[in-house]
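INFO  loader      accepted 1 record
INFO  loader      residues=164
INFO  predictor   begin
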Amino acid sequence: MSDYLIVVVNRACARFFTLEPVEFPELESGPRLTTCAEIENSEIKDVQEMYTDSKTGRGAAPQGGSVHGYVDKRDQHLDELRRRFAVRVLERIQKLARAERASTVILAASARMRRFLYPNIDTLTRQGCRVHKLSKNIINLSPQKIHEYLADDGLIPKQKKLKP
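INFO  predictor   done
INFO  writer      dumping tokens
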């Protein structure tokens, strides 16, 4: 069980961490960020392969005719996929927060995912959790770098280093 649940999210992936105390504090540096779950948004990856044309809104008529415009609603489709992924992430956050009995949830989300996650994360505050929202895409950092980043912001305790 951990007091902290740390979640880092972008449009394609979500990683869930807990902050665990070390078993022997006098022999190990700690606390440590431990990965407890990871979710991938396979729908986004499939759609990226489907959209081969990077430029939207323009097409040419057959046999050298004039150029005409069209709308493929790509952005709306991608937003819907992000919204669905956000629902899955929020369900997992609630499940893990209950299982770990976390009193603090830290959510770091990329710019595009924030608008889907932030409005619904407030349900955790009604359940007694403190929620810290961080507007930063740190999904590609290692767990140790994430720990350093969050500790520098004062959101989690720093990792105590052993003295030689």
